Amino acid sequence: MRRIYFDHNATTPVDPAVLAEMLPYLSGEYGNASSVHAFGQAARGAVERARESVAALIGARPPEIVFTSGGTESDNAAICGVVGPTTRSGQLPHIITTAIEHAAVLHTCQALERRTADVTYLPVSSDGVVDPQDVRRALRPQTVLISVMHANNELGTLQPIEDISRIAAEAGVTFHTDAVQSAGKVPLDVAQLGMHLLSLSAHKLYGPKGVGALYVRKGVRLAPLMYGGHSERDRRAGTENVPAIAGFGKAAEIARAHLAQEGARIAALRDRLEQGLLDRIPGARVNGPSVPRTPNTCNMLFPGVESESLVIALDLQGLACSAGAACSSGATDPSHVLAAIGLSTADARACVRLSLGCNNTDGDIDRALEIIPAVVAAHRGVAASQRQPVHTP
User: Among the options 109, 327, 351, 358, which is catalytic?
Assistant: First the structure.
């Protein structure tokens, strides 16, 4: 049985060319990139080539790329690096973000809120999009940072980043965006989009886990999150993870080369999957269908089912996806993203995310359109039988 993987927003498989790029630095090319001898300089060359490739993917200059351990560290470094202990006019620094950010942003903001900052969490529309004018209205004299993600990890919806960038520039406020879910899927040009800081993660675009990057526009002051040696131009202490960084560079190079063609192909698959499920499953609907989205992401509501049980049943049939409600075993709260777009608790717990990728084919869509409706119907039948009253003689 061919297994179908529809969970690329969680992680992607490592591209074979990426693995090949990494292997030398896991064996013979084992130097420390900070060493001056030949071994070290070979490692340094790999790091700098990767920096060029990652910079090219987003239209940045290589010195503006800081390698990190992943998107979470990049988000933390951006937010804490700007906010720190600073104040304006003797008051706590103020952050503006949205209610649907990734936990790496939300939990960082919440931690700062408990200690050294005020935070405004903006609402979003039923499609999961923030109104730029809400950002403008939330500005204060003490605002030091706006952090709004580019693409939402659950819905795929794209935020009006250019409009928010202009508002930030007019106010003289630093603007950060988490682009972990958009990089490699949609075009990114930091000069055009106008942000000061941007977070990336390799394992979302067919690179290895454990490596990411933070774009820091030239001239932006950023306090380091970690202290130690002089790696990454004193912006991120610690020995560089050369194999992973080399892999990240190759993944960025491949993504840039195939972005338009692969994006169109995957979008066509996603659209066929969505329409097929809407046609076959009564009451099904797409979350966030009427706004721009990443080409691979589909978040669907199937009323009358419980998403975690559905995900397990689909996995048993050979199809991997994820629950739209971010509730791991034992959790009681629905996804904060689905709650923010106005879904009831019951509906939020009846959503699944199907995120496609480069290995998916028309045959996968055909098979998914057989599996998913049948499993949903079976779960609805079980749920209906459980609601029937029990008659005793």
Answer: 327
